[in-house]
């Protein structure tokens, strides 16, 4: 059972007790992501995520790592377009220590100038690594095509230019804007005790927001069709195609996920069977859904040798056109719903996945559905709902991104 307690300062503590496990997963979820950055701030949310691991007033970066290694625990973080999460997984009797270290990082990071300069180079290497990988770069460029005038289209990592401007002052100013109590969720799952919850409240339940705190606002950006092509000396060409879709709060979200499974979400999907199994045009071909609070995207990715790119592209388009004109089969939808239920339940078999699900749900929805409620909603997915989504999504001219040799 998921319980939510709101501290006097507005921080929400979400807990799910799983008494038969011996681990604890805890995450600090912040409603701050790259889509809320100003153009000159692009990449600062991700840079802050890195800097919180680089030492506090009482712990060096090495000591933070050694403390978790000593207890056999894991600590990490990630930044997305809408939120940031700092998380740890440890044995249950180390829960309070893990929370204490996370709180020290959260409140007492020193942002030392030497560490800033070193980590700036680390992130720059991360950017270069992404640009060097065409299968990553093709998706990054696709988002620039889809949302050229909105922060949603900018890279989470930022750029070399914006990265060079970040200082301890700009970091603290950004954190004062978005790291305020009401924008924070502490999610904990596992063998949770009342003492651990009291410890979390003691550490996070008393700090106050400053006058600089800013409520995040969704921009409801407009999708743009278009085409990006990059000539590059590679053995394979990389193709990404995206259509505008629905967001996380849309009532037909499960229908969208089921539709994605049918078109390209698994090995029995239309695209996998047609592009790979029937025609042998690609080793990698799949589709996926990206859903944010207000908007979403339905994206298809494939890679093939440079000579077969146009054939693969045509095959993808033919497959999508057939879905649009002929619809899907009852058996396909039935199978997709069972796949969806299976992946949902199996995906909750670790304390870390429970912690993540609860943290995201609290930040985005402010409510928590039971497993049975979610399965019941999946069962309500119908042919009519999927047919409406097919028409609304595939009737729009897509955005296209291509990286390869000899591409046009």
From TrEMBL:
Domain Peptidase M16 N-terminal per the UniProt entry, residue ranges: 12-159
Parts of the chain that traverse the membrane: none
Highest rank taxon of the organism: Bacteria
Gene3D superfamilies named among the record's database cross-references: Metalloenzyme, LuxS/M16 peptidase-like
Residue ranges of domain Peptidase M16 C-terminal in the record: 166-340
Pfam families in alphabetical order: Peptidase_M16, Peptidase_M16_C
Record family assignment: Belongs to the peptidase M16 family.
PANTHER family: METALLOPROTEASE, MITOCHONDRIAL-PROCESSING PEPTIDASE SUBUNIT ALPHA
Name the record gives this protein: Insulinase family protein
Natural source organism: Ureibacillus galli
